[in-house]
Design brief:
Layout (H helix, E strand, L loop, with lengths): L5 E4 L16 H14 L3 E4 L12 H14 L3 E4 L15 H6 L9 E5 L3 E2 L3 E2 L4 E2 L5 E2 L3 H13 L3 E6 L2 H12 L7 E8 L11 H8 L8 E8 L4 H9 L3 E4 L14 H14 L7 H7 L4
Parallel strand pairs: 1-2, 1-12, 2-3, 4-9, 9-10, 10-11, 11-12
Antiparallel strand pairs: 5-8, 6-7
Helix pairs in contact: 1-2, 1-8
This protein binds zinc ion.
């Protein structure tokens, strides 16, 4: 079993009502990333945010954040690029990440590919209503083929995201086609009660994916729970050889008090130690995933 890769999902588009420790500004993101690295994370995933927390799409801000992150620690950098730019031409969504890859100071180590399209209407189970009724996150097969090629040519590691079995099957087909190299880094996004596109954050929700994976393929799999608590699955993931992506972007983690992202990462690292599995450094993670 490989060492445990821990990825910090530090902010997404989370507010600060439930936990004020969500980092928004470039300086806060870089500081939070360095603290997560010190606590055991080898990858940090972030979304650029404006001063008031609103989504920020300016490529110059992404460049600023990645420069700060590379300068403050050796953590591997994983920016968003997909759902944040729903109005962009799909083939263009990757362009700024590809352009920034030419400079070591602004280089992303991973580029995410969500392996299908989905309804992204958030649901309120208490009020029994959807906040929106027409939001589609569109990833055509052609767009994904373009991403697979462009990311590979830029020397960035494909971060292959699957929300349901259809996405997982699409990822495996891309492997069969030779579009995604092994080892494949395949991350299962389980979802909470407010976003229904993913499998629920239960052992059964995760096992449905795991049962699909062919034994003769080199796949390193990870798990996050967007909008839900991943802690109940942490021991299962650690003992079954998976990797963990977790942070305040997904859930306030009030189960741990009012933690920072680094506190959440430290908790996962402690579970790994208790269960006898070593935690991967950024260099270990590069080696496990055969990154350049
Ligand atoms: Zn994200």
């Amino acid at each position: 079993m490989s060492k445990l890769i821990i990825e910090a999902r530090i902010n997404e588009y989370a507010g600060r009502g439930a936990n004020p420790n969500v980092p928004w500004s470039p300086a806060e993101i870089a500081e939070d990333a360095a603290q997560c690295r010190a606590a055991g994370a080898s990858i940090v995933h972030f979304h650029a945010r404006a001063e008031d927390g609103a989504p920020e799409h300016d490529p110059a801000v992404y460049a600023d954040i990645m420069t700060r992150m590379h300068a403050s620690s050796d953590v591997l950098v994983h920016p968003t690029l997909g759902a944040a730019t729903l109005d962009a031409v799909p083939e263009k969504r990757m362009d700024h990440v590809i352009a920034l890859a030419g400079d070591p100071a602004t280089r992303a180590d991973f580029a995410p590919m969500d392996m299908g399209s989905a309804n992204l209407d958030y649901y309120d189970p208490a009020a029994k209503r959807f906040h929106t009724t027409d939001v589609i996150y569109k990833n055509t097969t052609g767009t994904l083929q373009h991403f697979a090629k462009a990311v590979g040519e830029a020397g960035i590691k494909h971060y292959v995201v699957t929300w349901n079995l259809g996405f997982t099957r699409q990822a495996l087909a891309f492997m069969d086609m030779g579009l995604l190299p092994e080892p494949l880094f395949l991350v299962f996004v389980l979802t909470g009660d407010n976003l229904l596109v993913g499998h629920p954050g239960t052992p059964e929700g995760l096992d449905a994916h795991l049962q699909m994976l062919p034994a003769d393929r080199n796949i390193e799999w990870g798990v996050c729970n967007h909008g839900g608590d991943l802690l109940p699955l942490v021991d299962k993931i650690i003992t079954e050889g998976g990797h963990i992506a977790i942070g305040l972007g997904d859930h306030p983690y009030s189960e741990l008090g009012q933690p920072t992202n680094a506190d959440v990462i430290a908790h996962v690292a402690e579970r790994a130690k208790a269960l006898g599995r070593e935690v991967a450094s950024p260099q270990d993670t590069r080696s496990i995933l055969a990154m350049s």
